[in-house]
Amino acid sequence: MANTSKYLELADALAAAIRREEYAPGDRFPTVNELARAHSVAPNTASRAVQVLKERGLLSGKAGGTTRVRVQPVHQVRANTRYQTEKDLVLRPEEERATNGVAELDSGVPLSTVHENQVQLDVIPAPVDVAEILGLETGALVLRRINTRRHRQGAGAGKSISYVPHDLASKNPELFDPQREPWPGGALHQLHTVGVEVDRIEDWVTASMPTDAEMEEQDIPPGIPVLRVRKVSYSTTGQAVEVTDIPLPADRVELRYVTPLRRWS
């Protein structure tokens, strides 16, 4: 019992020091041996304290590697009402669309202040499950768009992967040009340029534990699950025209759904 209280006491003391910013976000944190010497505890006690701080989301780093003070993620509120806002922007001037993207809608962080925004575009055979949703034959090509964004240096990344039928995207060659990214108005405006009006969007939400790669790239603390949103956009003819996969670590996102109900009279 004494050992248990000792590593928790050390964790609490170190957490207080982090909150006082004696260790700044992104800074290297002392090693287990350095902590053991500085606080006159056994290395095992220091190691367990560090693990507690990782579980609390205050430290980042793999076991055996460099441990750093975690750059805290931006809290996101993802509401279904955002889709109507996005659609309304489709017909607005480009300068207005450019300053009202997903980054602004979900996190309130202007895209102009985001530390990193990378977009990878490629053409691949549609994954089997994606082809089924889009009504494509096996092996049909899709334009894949992988977006990776970090709000601050050293922060975990946010990520999304979208798929649009190649035949549809080919109606506008600019959709294949990475120099056009970030696209003013996002996916709904891209679809508008190829003659598609989106009529409805469905979010299919599941949850699972993150992969090792996701934990590292998105800086997900141990034990935190990922909410997996599969967003499917449909045209006015009822055809699925885009599939987007969005992994959302549960420690930084809030899902809000507003459901208008038809009145009886």
Concise overview:
This protein has about 260 residues and is of the alpha+beta class. The protein is built from ten helices and ten strands.
Structure write-up:
This protein has 265 residues and is α+β, with helices and mostly antiparallel strands. Helix content is 32%, strand content 27%. It is built from ten helices and ten strands. The chain has helices spanning 2-19, 32-39, 43-55, 82-90, 94-97, 102-107, 128-134, 166-169, 186-193, 212-218; strands at residues 59-60, 68-69, 76-79, 116-125, 141-150, 158-165, 198-208, 226-235, 240-249, 253-256. The chain has a six-stranded antiparallel sheet. A hairpin with a 4-residue loop joins strand 8 (226-235) and strand 9. The longest helix has 18 residues, at 2-19. The chain starts with a helix and ends in a 9-residue tail after the last strand.
Features:
265 residues, 6-stranded antiparallel β-sheet, two-stranded antiparallel ribbon, 10 strands
Give the C-alpha Rg. Answer: 22 Å
Tell me, briefly, the overall form. Answer: elongated
| Total number of helices | 10
State mean pLDDT (0 to 100 scale).
Answer: 92
Low-confidence stretches: none
The largest pleated sheet is described as: 6 strands, antiparallel
Strand content: 25-35%
Record the strand order, biggest sheet: 4-5-6-9-8-7
User: What is the multimeric organization of the chains shown?
Assistant: single chain
C-alpha end-to-end distance: 66 Å
Order of helices and strands: HHHEEEHHHEHEEHHEHEEE
Classify the helix fraction into a percent range: 25-40%
Helical/strand content category: alpha+beta
- Strand segment tally: 10
